[in-house]
Amino acid sequence: MCHLNDFRIEYYDTLPSTNDLVREDLRHLRVIVADFQTKGRGQRENIWEAEKGSSILASMVYELKYGQNLDSEKLSLTTARAISEVLAETYPITPSVKFPNDILIEGKKVCGILIEVTNGFAVVGFGINVTSSPDAYNSTSILAEIAKKGVNSTEQLTINKDLLLKKILHKIRCFYENQ
Prior knowledge:
With 179 residues, this protein is α+β, with helices and mostly antiparallel strands. The protein has one domain (4-177): 2-Layer Sandwich (BirA Bifunctional Protein, domain 2), CATH 3.30.930. It has four helices and seven strands, in the order βαββαββββαα. Strand 4 (95-98) and strand 5 (102-105) form a beta hairpin. The longest helix is centred in the middle third of the chain and has 19 residues, at 72-90. The chain is globular and about 45 Å long. The two termini are 13 Å apart.
C-alpha cells in the first residue's frame, strides 16, 4: 500500500540541482524540491531551464527492492506514465509520453525526467513547466495549455503546485510498487 505521508519532502528556494542534493543522502522516499535550479540538467547533461517559481523541480529517492526489475529506462517510462496520468486526471489536457523521458502536450514539451540508479537506489528527477516555459525550446506549460481549452483569463486560474506534486509522488510510488 502506498501512502503519501511516508515521503520526507524538503523545500528549497534555490539549489544547483535537486538530483545532486538528494544523492548526497540516499534515504527511501526523500524528496527535494526547489523553486529554482542554477545547474538543472536532463539526460545526456542537457540543461534544464525554468524561471524561478514557474515549475515543479523535484527529485525523489526510491530504494529498489531485492529482485525488483526496474532499470533506468523502465523507471523513466513508469515515471512519465504516472505524471501523465495525474496531469490528465487533474486538468483538461492530454499529455503523451515521448520515449524515453519527456512528456508532451500537443507536441510541445511540458516535462522532462532524469533517472539515475546508484547503489540500489533510484534518483527520480523531474521538471514540470507549470506557469511558464522557456522560449528557446519547443515547450509549453500546464497553464498555457489549460488556457487554450477555454479559460478566459489565466489570472482566473491558479495551480496548486504543492498539491500537484503530492499527487504525482503518490502515483509514482504506487506505480513503482506494482512493478
